[in-house]
Amino acid sequence: MSAADVETQSQQESSNGTSKFDVPEIELIIKASTIDGRRKGACLFCQEYFMDLYLLAELKTISLKVTTVDMQKPPPDFRTNFEATHPPILIDNGLAILENEKIERHIMKNIPGGYNLFVQDKDVATLIENLYGKLKLMLVKKDDAKNNALLTHLKKINDHLANRNTRFLTGDTMCCFDCELMPRLQHIRVAGKYFVDFEIPTHLTALWRYMYHMYQLDAFTQSCPADQDIINHYKLQQSLKMKKHEELETPTFTTSIPIDISE
């Protein structure tokens, strides 16, 4: 297992002399890259909880440690402790939480500040559910009908953002829904372009503005997998092998915006 390249202010001695030991240390174990086995992998739930916890670490309510595990060659101590369980795994004061729903519940109910992340908004919850399913169908079916289904869904999200006129899904402060949506948008952007030449239309300006703001945040950029890892994630699902030159590529991260954004 290796520590991911994440460091937040809460992990350091703060200027007023407060020690990191004054806040609970939370460890999040996430899947490593399927290319090099060390950097962050392209697991959506891993990134979602990474973002949740990173936001809390920025608020200095916790100290966050993120560890990557190569699930193609899991180390003996991981297998001893967790058997066949796959990340994400959250460890809080020696207690390991292994299932996604339980991890969410634990962040909301047991981790300082977590309750504030979990905004109750049924409209937004309904709006963003099943988006990932439409991406997977598009990548498998590769036809216009599946492309159009994804486009229609993205337009609904765009219209919601335009009508609310807020920086994020429920307001001007990030919440759990943003940590869920943005990793999925990144997969749509990177995998959609690579496999079926799908691009998010530039006329969805509210959606692009939203993505622009997300790209400015450490919570997203520190947790985001490389483009190559996102692509290989879906290659493995389709039983495709990554070419040797792709394995050796320097990791790239698509965070550019194709339209001008006025603040």
Automatic annotation (TrEMBL):
- InterPro entries (alphabetical): CLIC_N (IPR053823), Glutathione-S-Trfase_C_sf (IPR036282), Thioredoxin-like_sf (IPR036249)
Membrane topology qualifier: Single-pass membrane protein
Parts forming coiled coils: none
**How is this protein annotated for GO cellular component?**
apical plasma membrane; cytoplasm
Give the keywords, sorted.
Membrane, Transmembrane, Transmembrane helix
A Gene Ontology molecular function term for this protein is: chloride channel activity
Q: Which residues form the CLIC N-terminal domain?
A: 24-107
Organism's domain of life?
A: Eukaryota
Which Pfam families does the annotation name?
CLIC-like_N
Give its localization: Membrane
UniProt keyword Cytoplasm present:
no
The text of the family note is: Belongs to the chloride channel CLIC family.
Which PANTHER family does the entry mention?
CHLORIDE INTRACELLULAR CHANNEL CLIC, CHLORIDE INTRACELLULAR CHANNEL, ISOFORM A
**Protein name per Swiss-Prot or TrEMBL:** CLIC N-terminal domain-containing protein
Q: Which gene encodes it?
A: Dvir\GJ19132
